[in-house]
């Protein structure tokens, strides 16, 4: 009997859906963090060109406006997230077309950002100058690579709407993850701690305690409910019954979903469980680079960086959350495991290395000058 249980545990932990969830979430965080560093470097090395490119350009316009989370935003973000969750819980059926439309627009822009380096790589061998702008009148001016990535992204969103396939939904969710990690910034360890602690309480409450108040697990219901296909909405207005009947419901790309080897089972991880710890990992990666640039002697720098420490913690936390969900046979608030395993090792490591005071406040202020890339 014990041998059977051990084999069951081993099988469940090696299930392809769980393995893919862990691997993909790690890759998204690492890639998003490197894209953030790349954006910083591009802006610092060519600030004047960035300002010229920002006139009407979709991507450069975003590039010139990194969103840095302030103390007030870190405190009230869990409150705002709770309000949004309740709106989707009570009014999803009424506003599902609006939610689907907004999600489609955001996913198009986010996935085009994910595709942009690929399009730039495809155009460079063709002799195309990726910095040349094409004017589209009142829509603004765009590079060929931006237009190409936006076109392919829009096509992918259209196919997703038509088919509702989970693979396309996951692809759009990945674009959202990378974009948010690259463009949203945590300026200090203090704000990181406030934000992640508040989101931990938010996650625990809505997963474990919401059922006592609302007679249903609000977080799980919102995450798993499906919206009517926008095509069906349009077809209904045009009285096209054949299209209405053939249009599948769609799951909004607010999560990663991977079907399990077992029929009817799947692994699911919310984007917040990737993006929020990812913002912390991006912060410490930028701090590692900043510290290395300002180090008096590079040889004295430890080979184990804050990013390595937090990434290992994220992996351990994600595996722990996976095991907990299997033990209790119920949905788990992943941030309950991810936040302590990522934040506490960084705090301890910063204290031991003497960096805690500097990281707690804004570590990127040098000689009274605050980098443009960290302003709201």
UniProtKB/TrEMBL annotation:
<dbReference type="InterPro" id="IPR006639">
    <property type="entry name" value="Preselin/SPP"/>
</dbReference>
<dbReference type="GO" id="GO:0006465">
    <property type="term" value="P:signal peptide processing"/>
</dbReference>
<keyword id="KW-0378">Hydrolase</keyword>
<keyword id="KW-0812">Transmembrane</keyword>
<dbReference type="GO" id="GO:0098554">
    <property type="term" value="C:cytoplasmic side of endoplasmic reticulum membrane"/>
</dbReference>
<keyword id="KW-0472">Membrane</keyword>
<dbReference type="GO" id="GO:0042500">
    <property type="term" value="F:aspartic endopeptidase activity, intramembrane cleaving"/>
</dbReference>
<dbReference type="GO" id="GO:0030660">
    <property type="term" value="C:Golgi-associated vesicle membrane"/>
</dbReference>
<feature type="transmembrane region" description="Helical">
    <location>
        <begin position="266"/>
        <end position="285"/>
    </location>
</feature>
<keyword id="KW-1133">Transmembrane helix</keyword>
<feature type="transmembrane region" description="Helical">
    <location>
        <begin position="74"/>
        <end position="92"/>
    </location>
</feature>
<feature type="transmembrane region" description="Helical">
    <location>
        <begin position="334"/>
        <end position="352"/>
    </location>
</feature>
<feature type="transmembrane region" description="Helical">
    <location>
        <begin position="98"/>
        <end position="123"/>
    </location>
</feature>
<feature type="transmembrane region" description="Helical">
    <location>
        <begin position="168"/>
        <end position="186"/>
    </location>
</feature>
<feature type="transmembrane region" description="Helical">
    <location>
        <begin position="19"/>
        <end position="38"/>
    </location>
</feature>
<feature type="transmembrane region" description="Helical">
    <location>
        <begin position="144"/>
        <end position="162"/>
    </location>
</feature>
<dbReference type="InterPro" id="IPR007369">
    <property type="entry name" value="Peptidase_A22B_SPP"/>
</dbReference>
<comment type="similarity">
    <text>Belongs to the peptidase A22B family.</text>
</comment>
<dbReference type="GO" id="GO:0098553">
    <property type="term" value="C:lumenal side of endoplasmic reticulum membrane"/>
</dbReference>
<dbReference type="Pfam" id="PF04258">
    <property type="entry name" value="Peptidase_A22B"/>
</dbReference>
<feature type="transmembrane region" description="Helical">
    <location>
        <begin position="306"/>
        <end position="328"/>
    </location>
</feature>
<feature type="transmembrane region" description="Helical">
    <location>
        <begin position="193"/>
        <end position="214"/>
    </location>
</feature>
<dbReference type="GO" id="GO:0033619">
    <property type="term" value="P:membrane protein proteolysis"/>
</dbReference>
<protein>
    <recommendedName>
        <fullName>Signal peptide peptidase-like 3</fullName>
    </recommendedName>
</protein>
């Amino acid at each position: 009997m014990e041998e059977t249980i051990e084999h069951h545990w081993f099988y469940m932990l090696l299930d392809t859906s769980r393995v893919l969830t862990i691997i993909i979430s790690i890759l998204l965080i690492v890639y998003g963090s490197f894209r953030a560093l790349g954006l910083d470097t591009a802006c610092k090395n060519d600030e004047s060109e960035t300002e010229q490119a920002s006139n009407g350009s979709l991507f450069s316009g975003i590039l010139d406006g990194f969103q840095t989370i302030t103390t007030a935003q870190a405190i009230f973000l869990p409150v705002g997230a709770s309000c949004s969750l309740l709106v989707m819980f009570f009014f999803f059926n009424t506003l599902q077309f609006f939610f689907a439309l907004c999600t489609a627009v955001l996913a198009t822009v986010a996935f085009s950002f994910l595709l942009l380096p690929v399009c730039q790589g495809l155009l460079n061998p063709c002799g195309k100058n990726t910095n040349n702008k094409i004017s589209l009148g009142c829509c603004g001016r765009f590079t060929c690579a931006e237009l190409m990535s936006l076109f392919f992204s829009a096509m992918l969103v259209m196919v997703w709407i038509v088919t509702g396939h989970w693979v396309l939904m996951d692809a759009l969710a990945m674009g959202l993850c990378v974009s948010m990690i690259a463009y949203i910034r945590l300026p200090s360890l203090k704000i990181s701690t406030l934000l992640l602690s508040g989101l931990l309480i938010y996650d625990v409450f809505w997963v474990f305690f919401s059922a006592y108040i609302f007679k249903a697990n609000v977080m799980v219901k919102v995450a798993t409910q499906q919206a009517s296909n926008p095509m069906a909405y349009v077809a209904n207005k045009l009285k096209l019954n054949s299209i209405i009947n053939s249009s599948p419901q769609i799951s909004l790309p607010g999560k990663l979903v991977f079907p399990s080897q077992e029929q009817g089972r799947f692994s699911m991880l919310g984007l917040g469980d990737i993006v929020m710890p990812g913002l912390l990992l991006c912060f410490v990666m930028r701090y590692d680079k900043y510290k290395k640039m300002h180090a008096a002697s590079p040889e004295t720098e430890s080979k184990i960086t804050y990013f390595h420490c937090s990434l290992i913690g994220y992996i351990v936390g994600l595996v722990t959350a996976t095991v907990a969900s299997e033990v209790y046979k119920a949905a788990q608030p992943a941030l309950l495991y991810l936040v302590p395993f990522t934040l506490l090792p960084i705090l301890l490591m910063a204290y031991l290395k003497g960096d805690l005071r500097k990281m707690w406040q804004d570590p990127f202020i040098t000689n009274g000058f605050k980098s443009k890339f960290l302003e709201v």
